[in-house]
Amino acid sequence: MSLQRFISEAISPWMKSGPGPEGDIVLSTRIRLARNLEHYPFPIVASDESANTMLHYTSKELTKDSYPQMGSLELLKMNELSPNQKRVLVEKHLISPHLAEKSLHGAVLLSDDESVSIMLNEEDHIRLQCLFRGFQLNESLVLSNGLDDWIEEKVTYAFDEKRGFLTSCPTNVGTGMRASVMMHLPALVMTQQLNRILPAINQLGLVVRGIYGEGSEALGNLFQISNQMTLGKSEEDIVEDLRGVVMQLIQQERYARDEIMRTSKIQLEDKVFRSFGLLTNSRIMESKEAAERLSDVRLGIDLDLIQGISGNILNELMILTQPGFLQQYAGKGLTPDERDVRRAALIRERMKLEREG
């Protein structure tokens, strides 16, 4: 396995088998666990020497054998990657912006299909994430717990009997778990119902973020729903609370889609096909507009207004048209204007391949 493999394909292998359960609305499910090691200063206060010692020790322990049914893990060190290579890994959700920007002594261990990512020396010593297509909270929890047990056989976690797993940020203390679901909610946005729903979600101890987590913008009507508290609840309770809210959002999004089709079908068709026309013909396309147009087309595909095009095109082009990937394919740095031209050309080419295929 080489670095080039991880940064050359926009769609990770785990995403390629088509939409998962509730895949018309839920794009992916993620479980992330935050862990620290005993007897090592946490990364936010660690010296260069301590951070390097921890990285060497942990990466050696986690690469000397493989996790059953998953194969070996590939180690990528942040100080050996270019800024754009790290940017591509962020765009694919394989590492966090924090690891890319602030962790000189950080690294990531990746599984062959990219469904498992273990970040080292991020905000915590270990950030383990498991990704599944569609709505698969139980499956993601089972895999993450299995990997967590496998790691704990090799290293000793910082753990307190009363507080649970000890983490750099107090909001992660306890289970150290973030369960999140990436959802496509265009109809709730169009009908302005989402603004009413968001405060209620927050009151239930959940948080709604953009596609790259905390502080990121919700591009293309894509929203990440996750738990906010990790202390005082079991992992199973956190997952069940999230499941209940996500199922409600799925039902309300489908109802909103049905209502739009019933009351404003011609206006919706106009919106969808205008976006389709712009994606297939534009010569300049900014990132935000591309996300909005791709969201419209994906909605048109899900409602059978557009046929012959895979719904996975939203997942692929949302990543493929990001700045890091555009520059990766160009083999050089690009100005914002140059990226807008290349983005439009790439989308035209990809849409053409879909129609001819």
TrEMBL record:
Which InterPro entries does this one have? Arg_Kinase, ATP-guanido_PTrfase, ATP-guanido_PTrfase_AS, ATP-guanido_PTrfase_cat, Gln_synth/guanido_kin_cat_dom
Gene Ontology molecular functions: ATP binding; creatine kinase activity; protein arginine kinase activity
Listed under GO cellular component are: extracellular space
| Placement of sequence motif RDXXRA motif of the pArg binding pocket involved in allosteric regulation | 339-344
Catalytic reactions of this protein: L-arginyl-[protein] + ATP = N(omega)-phospho-L-arginyl-[protein] + ADP + H(+)
Domain of life, per the record?
Bacteria
**Regulation affecting activity:** Appears to be allosterically activated by the binding of pArg-containing polypeptides to the pArg-binding pocket localized in the C-terminal domain of McsB.
Tell me which CDD domains the record gives: bacterial_phosphagen_kinase
Query: Binding residues for ATP, per the UniProt record?
Result: 28-32, 93, 127, 178-182, 209-214
- Keywords linked to the UniProt accession: Allosteric enzyme, ATP-binding, Kinase, Nucleotide-binding, Transferase
Respond yes or no to whether keyword Protein biosynthesis is given for this record. no
Domain Phosphagen kinase C-terminal: where?
Answer: 25-256
Share an example GO biological-process annotation for this protein.
phosphocreatine biosynthetic process
Q: Which Pfam families match?
A: ATP-gua_Ptrans
The EC number(s) this enzyme carries: 2.7.14.1
UniProt xrefs under SUPFAM superfamilies = Glutamine synthetase/guanido kinase (SSF55931)
Family membership noted in the UniProt record: Belongs to the ATP:guanido phosphotransferase family.
User: What role does this protein play?
Assistant: Catalyzes the specific phosphorylation of arginine residues in a large number of proteins. Is part of the bacterial stress response system. Protein arginine phosphorylation has a physiologically important role and is involved in the regulation of many critical cellular processes, such as protein homeostasis, motility, competence, and stringent and stress responses, by regulating gene expression and protein activity.
- What's the protein here called? Protein-arginine kinase
Which gene codes for it?
A: mcsB
